[in-house]
Design brief:
Chain lengths: 466, 98
């Protein structure tokens, strides 16, 4: 093939890939067409890879083959993790994305410096690529470690934390700008790499486990932007497009997560949430009304509209399948069942929907917060399973509460509420929940899986209840 | 010429970001977890850059870095598309009469 033809084939395949990627995300908008979106994404990827492999500079395939084999061997098991571990897997994949960008930037720096092809613009793009790439790499590894609980989920803080962290970043950027002026100062390059790696670690360790949905989304955005920077370095437009799609997706998801927790970006990144939550217990402790699984079953039996509010505690107790059995029992009696999904239920955006879908709960029964809130006053019974802060009415009226202003599910407006809880220990943020002492609430204490199993038993047979 | 291409790339970036915002905003919240794994797999298109660096074998240093980058990107492509499809297969509508 003539060089001109090869160029046209490559660019044509990139153009097709870009269009397929946009279709892929469009089709993902609805569950009916979503799987077609995956197919479009795969086709786009294949087109781009084939279009690249015809490139005349690619003369050797051994190392490529090694990379592909290693990637496949690592990738296949990673796609089979339990759905509760999907947030960790996602964080790991952001780490790999950042790593790839950082390494390609490093290789390009060395190659261009040697061949004398370095320009100020290329150096600038490489600087952005390696800073973003390497900080995303270590930051995402830290996030994955926190989600997997191999490193402490509580915020780790030290004196002058924000000042120290931002100074490190500033030094890295300064060194990068120096390189733009004089790319031959190669000894600055490892300094930038080391500072970016360190900054990624320091950026994430002060952030608590409760903020991980926002952090994952933000790192998603960084991973996308590092791909964009790589696109500028390699002058490759399909990379810029795919990176921009990924970057804007991560950005939108982080905005949604921040709004759902009534926090700002700066607050999440630099606020060390969960630090000073030693909130004084105001007023006298009201007594809670404790009930048995049998009582709960009787109450549910009288209802005509039931809303179930699942929280991450449900997934921790592995109670999803029991919840499905309960849903079937209620449906069998002609009782309307819906699930109320708070945006931050779970550990990453949309996590709870996936967990319930796995338990074969039909997705048309999963209702978002804004859509279900008007329904609560007409709801007879709300069953809260493993959710806590997202149903705390204090967020609406108690200005002294740390969660004040956070949008919540208005569960307390329902006629009656059943809350299943292991004990009266306060939730993740360490805040008392006044829902539990409200007049229309009864508490059933115990493991969510066992309690819901008992409720189902009480509804079906009535015997065997302790 | 180089200057011209820089601006062309900047325009592409700007337009793609707008398209991204528009398309992503329309994705149902139901599917935000698969959305993240899918965009992840798509941005592993970075593999095209690593392929060239690895395949041209200019220096040992660049080849090794390139091969590691290929492995990292292929991991994201393989696991990203597979897990997205695995999750999407679980989303089912209510069967009639249930």
């Amino acid at each position: 093939m003539s060089p001109e033809l090869i160029y046209n084939v490559t660019q044509g395949s990139y153009l097709a890939a870009a269009a397929l990627f946009i279709f892929s995300l469009r089709w993902l908008s609805r569950p009916e067409t979503a799987r077609r979106g995956v197919l479009a994404g795969v086709l786009g990827m294949v087109a781009a890879i084939v279009g690249t492999l015809v490139h005349p500079d690619i003369a050797h395939y051994e190392w490529i083959a090694v990379g592909v084999v290693v990637g496949t061997v690592v990738g296949v098991p990673l796609s089979r993790v339990a759905l509760t571990a999907v947030p960790q897997r996602t964080a790991l994949s952001h780490a790999f994305g950042g790593l790839a960008a950082g390494l390609v930037g490093t290789a390009k720096y060395a190659l261009w410096l040697e061949s004398g092809e370095m320009t100020a613009f290329r150096m600038f793009a490489i600087t952005v690529e390696i800073i973003l790439g390497f900080l995303t790499f270590t930051g995402s590894l830290m996030a994955a470690g926190k989600l997997q609980e191999v490193i402490p989920t509580r915020p780790i803080t030290y004196r002058n934390q924000n000042f120290i962290n931002l100074s490190l970043l500033a030094i890295a950027i300064g060194a990068g700008l120096w390189l733009v002026v004089d790319p031959t100062q190669w000894q600055l390059f490892p300094v930038i790499v080391a500072l970016s790696l360190l900054f990624g670690v320091l950026l994430i360790i002060p952030i608590g486990g409760a903020d991980m949905p926002t952090v994952i989304s933000l790192l998603n955005s960084y991973a996308g932007l590092s791909a964009v920077a790589m696109g500028f370095v390699l002058e490759n437009k399909v990379l810029i497009i795919a990176g921009a799609l990924d970057g804007s997706s991560g950005f939108i998801l982080s905005v949604i997560m921040c709004r759902a927790m009534n926090r700002s970006f700066t607050n999440v990144l630099f606020g060390a949430f969960g630090q000073v939550q030693a909130v004084a217990v105001h007023g006298e402790q009201k007594a809670v009304k404790s009930a048995t699984a049998q009582d709960a079953a009787d109450l549910l039996d009288t209802a005509s509209q039931v809303v179930i509010v699942p929280g991450y505690g449900m997934a921790v107790a592995q109670a999803q399948h029991r919840v499905h059995e309960l849903r079937d029992q209620l449906a069998k009696r002609g009782i309307g069942v819906k699930f109320a999904i708070h945006p931050v239920a779970g550990r990453m955006p949309g996590h709870m929907n996936v967990l319930l879908a796995e338990a074969e709960i039909p997705y048309d029964e999963l209702v978002e917060m804004d859509d279900i809130n008007p329904d609560f006053p007409q709801t007879d019974v709300v069953l809260v399973v493993g959710a806590n802060d997202v149903v705390n009415p204090a967020a609406r009226h108690d200005k002294s509460s740390p969660i004040y202003g956070m949008p919540i599910l208005d569960v307390d407006k329902a006629k009656s509420v059943i809350a299943i809880k292991r004990s009266m220990n306060p939730g993740f943020a360490g805040i008392d929940n006044e829902l539990y002492t409200a007049d229309n609430t009864v508490m059933v204490f115990g493991d969510a899986k066992a309690v819901i199993g008992d409720i189902v038993k009480a509804m079906t047979g009535g015997s065997g209840i302790h | 010429m180089a200057g011209l291409d820089l601006w062309a790339m900047a325009f592409v970036f700007m337009l793609a970001t707008f398209i991204g915002f528009d398309v992503i905003r329309n994705v149902s919240r139901l599917l935000h977890t698969p959305l993240m794994s899918l965009t992840n797999a798509i941005s592993a298109i970075a593999v095209v850059g690593s392929l060239i660096i690895t395949g041209e074998e200019k220096t040992t240093f660049s080849t090794v870095l390139g091969a590691v980058a290929v492995a990292a990107s292929v991991t994201n492509i393989v696991s990203g598309f597979l897990i997205t499809d695995r999750m999407l297969r679980m989303f089912k509508r209510r069967e009639p009469g249930q």
